[in-house]
Batch of 2 targets.
Target 1
Amino acid sequence: MATIAPTAALDRPHSVRLRARLQDWLPRIVLAPSFLLILVFVYGFDLWTFFLSFTNSRAFTSTKLIGLANYQKLWTWTFETDPPSNWYTALVNMGLFGGLYVAFCLILGLGLAILLDQKIRGEGILRPIYLYPLALSFIVTGTAWKLFLDPRIGLEKAVHDWGWTSFHFDWVVNPSMMIYCVAIAGVWQTSGFVMAMFLAGLRGVDSEILKAAQIDGASTFQTYRRIIIPIIRPVFFSALIILAHMAIKSYDLVLSVTGKNPGGAAELPSTFMYSYTFTRNQMAVGSTSAVIMLATIAAIMVPYLYSELKEKAR
Amino acid sequence: MSAGDLITSGPSREPARHSLTTRIVIYGLLVVFALVYIVPLVVMVNTSLKPLDEVTGGNMFALPQHLTLQPWIRAWGEARIGVSETAGIAGYFANSIKMVVPAVLISTVLGALNGYVLTKWRFPGHALVFGLMLFACFIPFQSVIIPMAVILGMLGHIGNELKDATGWSFGFGNSTVNLVIVHVVYGLGFTTLFFRNYYEAFPTELVKAAMMDGASFFQIFRRVLLPNSTPIIIVTVIYQFTNIWNDFLFGSTFAAGDNAPMTVALNNLVNTSTGITEYNVNMAAAIIAAGPTLFVYIVGGRYFVRGLMAGAVKG
Amino acid sequence: MATLEIKALRKRFGALEILKGIDITLEKGGFLVLVGPSGCGKSTLLNTIAGLESISSGEIRIGGRVVNDLHPSKRDIAMVFQSYALYPNMSVGENIAFGMEMRGVAKPERDKAVAAVAKTLQIEHLLQRRPGQLSGGQRQRVAMGRALVRQPSVFLFDEPLSNLDAKLRVDMRIEIKRLHQTTGTTIVYVTHDQIEAMTLATKIAVLKDGEVQQVGTPSEIYNMPDNLFVADFMGSPAMNLLEGRVARANGEATIVLERSDHPAIVAPIPASANAETLVDGAKVIFGIRPEAVNDMESIDRNAKTVVKFEAKVEIVEPAGSDTFVVTRAAGKELTARMRADADLKVGQNHTFAFNLDKAVLFDPATTQRI
């Protein structure tokens, strides 16, 4: 609120009032560009893509509406299992990759956090080691793992050299197993982050509760199982939501681990969208898959964000 | 205490009573996993220092018999990237820098101002505005990429027209400018989130006191909030730098060919289907690509963690 | 055989000695309060009794057994924490039963024990609720219930009332005292609030910097403090401590308290002090509590020795039930507690009186009571 000297207001009422009004509105004016940018570039574009999913756009955008035809196409493709349509493969892989990625990140993250929570020495060295993969681009991660798992020069060869000659690990070049390699690389990259979340959660548990548990005679295992882990349930949810949304958005990682994606065996909705839009010139189908991706993420994130914001407001 | 602080401040309770065997198991597991995390990086470095015949003929764990920096030199200046004429990743590295620096600066400044407005100058509807900006952090980029391509295409046309008319395109259609725009817009959600959470905890009394002293909107920001914002600025800059430098999707879609950022060039290099795969050069290139963010991580690791936690646990 | 015996207990943390040789005993059914300023080691001492922290040397016996190396759950103790430490993911009933569950007590017996305790504390209607749904006072009772159900030899309370607001604190204090009287349990209680200490304890141990300053009944601690620290720490408002000197003349010893604008106050040696040891000219600290400083109307009728003196009123603080009047003696402020309707004006000269029965003397050099 601007303070105005009364005499000034009498002398030049109009411009002073205008200036005062401007001051009041200044915060909103400052916020406006960012907000508008987001409105347009995020929500506006989402709507645009949504619109496109109802058109027959191919290599370029078209405004000719064809109703739900694209959605129907994808719907049919969902059930085309033999031979599997690209969309079917994408969905299956999403389930496999997403499920494994989330599950293993959670398990590994929780496990490492619990181990680190045992008052061990050297945490200052270990924790950064678990976390550093996060600093890497997914492309770098994929490149590293592609080499590591390469049967000719990577793991299989190394194990052969050490004597176990019947060891077989060609997943990364085997179309049907590629997606698991993507999962391995993904878990390697992100589990440190989940560990950090769980570690913060574990350390946030009131130490007096742990003392009470000691007096009650609970062993370390019982304390974790009956008390600590139930208390950090919110952290599970946070981690789950974030991992799920990262899994759906995964694109760089798939590309770099699988290379040229032979036969589309490691297809995911994200790569599906890209190839149909830019390579196969079926923009409308691509848009439709993008809308489906967006809807899935919204279905996960919106309830979660809403409850988080409400918590903060309380 | 924020979650990030909880992690970095370390344990504060009495030592647990664990038997010797338990402790051995715990340490053993931790070390095994540490190896799992570190080995791929070690292999990368190792491979990047070997001549190609050692890589293809030998064991990835074996140390180089003929240590060589040739792969690094090739990666930097000589390797052919896809179908590009430019040799080596040096140019692409520069592209990344040209794009990252402005994008980080602009998105951070805007995020700070937004956070300031949202917490200290509340207006009706601020919760909704924040909510909308927050959700924007999580959208899949696939849902905006087509319209963005169209818009950037239009900007390119405008640029060409301007160039024909005045001799300069004023930045329209320039790939670097395009990427900066894209990264600023899609980074705004996160930077606003970080600053908003930080300023939320900042005592409003200081702002009110400054107001009573007659300070204006911007003066309060500059003289009261900004000087006390160093921690969150560091967190935001690190987070944005890492995300933007590591981005691939936008880079590959909107900045093709010679103007591509580092990540795109790396991917093209590694996935060339022509000729022999020079694994050692690829690894060197990957390490160069990862260099800046790893360096930032080593130097500012504590803030890195805080940034992650701020995004995830939200205060 | 005392229920709790602590002998020569020392605790070191690195180079820092936190507890410097503690000796305390507590008989069965006693209520021991460990009181002292922040950092004096009282919580640490409680934690060592509980077994949550280790000791460097010394011995702790509970019920005659040496418990130094025993796990907390094996020491036959129960603890009520400052934050109550209720398990948030379990119901009240499960919270109370958890310890029994860990010890392998069968479900029917657990339920019976929980029901009995709930009845005593009147929390039966809360058994299915979660701690998050309870008020502060209710949570306190659940925490006590969890401790009660163990039927331990010793109950440990770690500043349980600090988190409550003033009114609730008084109510819960009475509850704890009632609990002690009806169940006759042995209690060790830590607080920094000396009023809690005085009202609850049968025995008080005043601690400072890891050392026991004095152990005694509330009355002993209050009326016969062993040293200056105890004298000053206990009692609110604090005891008046005035510098004076001994004057011996004609075989008679008196205390002289100089004043700047009035003649010195001359008082006989208080009954509590050993007059023989006092040397002429020796410096002493004269201690007297505000309630023993009045005027002739309010002074205790049964006082054997009274010293009158004129002084100027500096500050008058009406406190409802009393009026505190501040004047000056021996260069320091002297607080007197007068009747509520004492009508004194600032600047007015008034005749005050010391009830010398209640006065104590300290040696300034050793801080000990004479």
Target 2
Amino acid sequence: MAIDYERHRYRANLFSLAVIALFWAAPAVAHPHVWVTYQTTVVYDKGAISGFQHVWTFDDMYTAMAVQGLDKNNDGTYDKAELAELAQVNMDGLKDFDYFTFAKLGAADLTLAAPQEPWLEHTNGILRLHYKLPLSQPVLAEAENFNFSVHDPSYFIAFDPEKTDALKLSAGAPEGCKVAFGEVKSGPESEELKAKLLDNAFAQELGQTQDIGAGFSTTATVTCAKS
Amino acid sequence: MKSIQAFFIVAALAILVPLFGSAAAQEKRQHFAVPAAPAYSAAQQQSLSAGGPGMFERARIWLMAQQSKFHRELSAAVKNLKTGEPARAILVLTGIAFLYGVLHAAGPGHGKAVISSYVLANEETVRRGISLSFLAALIQALSAIFFVGIFAILFNQTKPVMDQAENTIESLSWGLVAALGSWMLYRQFKATWPSVKLVEAGPAHHRDHAHHIHEQHDHGHHDHGANCNCGHSHMPAPQDLQGAWSWRKAFPIALSVGIRPCTGAIILLIFAMSQGLLWAGILGTFAMALGTAITVSILAALTVYSRDFAERMSGDGSLWAQRIHTAAGFAGAALVFLLGAAFFMASLKDPSPL
């Protein structure tokens, strides 16, 4: 084949290398394949924060994928029993990722215990995962700066808070306590804020932590008015 | 994804990234119409200049955000086929899937890096690089369709089973890439040091051109006219991969890269199927593949064009140039091998959280 590029033989693959390297130059940025809208309730029990109650709503594409082949009785719906196994599979899978729930007291990481009562519901082509996620050790309700974040550091899953009532405190929360996202709020409140979030992601990326997801997520903090 | 960084270090040994990087980032930024950076406070400016995000990183984040957007819009497009105006919905679906493919291939960890390295090592032509890219993308689209056809439609399997299968295919794919890379390295080694007996006898079809020690040839590289008579290959790399285009030569690399179905395509197919619109999923998958092929082609073509450019820049047939050439041959082969090996390892321990 008389292509005239054939005439170039020697030298200078250097530039090609440069071009290729450009595409590898920066750490990998995954992009999300799954979207989760979360609603998280901080659960109080006997005057202490015992853990979380998560309700995660999946996107319709992931839903189709996840329920594929699970309609065992072929009635066109996916009932709780048909989805029970999947709920367990999810729990097992999430375990290695700390359930994408990062709880802290101040700056100290808190550990989580095994999740409880996982179940799935499928309505209108949307899958919703419910489960309780206890802390290994309850935190005193009055403890200052109990905070948590729900995000995927690798950003394979995009976690977004529910538009309304994303964060709640369960019954038994002390009077005057509330939970809210911290200084960096999510949502397109302002372009500047968004830019900050991006910069946060860049900073983390450049800092080699690969903690990309956090840049787009938010930390929720429980604060209690002193009475 | 640490491996990617490792490769970069390998590649960076040879490279002009600082020179080239900012220019390309700038270009990329324009190409992809990255929104203008917001105004920063003085303090922020300070922090930015002190190791803050560059434009390139910014472009990449933007890329990711766009991809994420397209991914979500795909589902809306499929649903619109039922509720909206069909002709318009088809157009939108195809368009979004195409753009998704274009952007998706620009992300890391794709076959594009393998194809470019391969093109680099093998002195492929622009046309051949493009053919390879399209062939790999076509195989990938067919792979996704067969995958869904077999696992979801024929056997009605569940996601965990499909994940497992996908993972196995992925390992196989990268394993093949690594094997191909080591083969390329072997050929390069043989060609560079023909007197060294590496293995007693290679496969029967290696008609070694190793006796063409290229230092001894004068191929008249200064002649860039159309009648340049450098008809034979003297890149001493895999002879198998040289010469006229043939399916036999293109197939191993395209297949190695392409048999791994794209997760995005599988999700689209299954979702379309769940909506009773499997055909739309198939259409979207091919549109995606077209987009992927175009991005990979651009990169492959850039690789070849860059070589041309560099050739014009460098002196003619100098020993230095030949050394670079040999080094690049090794680097390309090594990169194919390293990419394959690293992604193979990664594929072995890559559990899906959901």
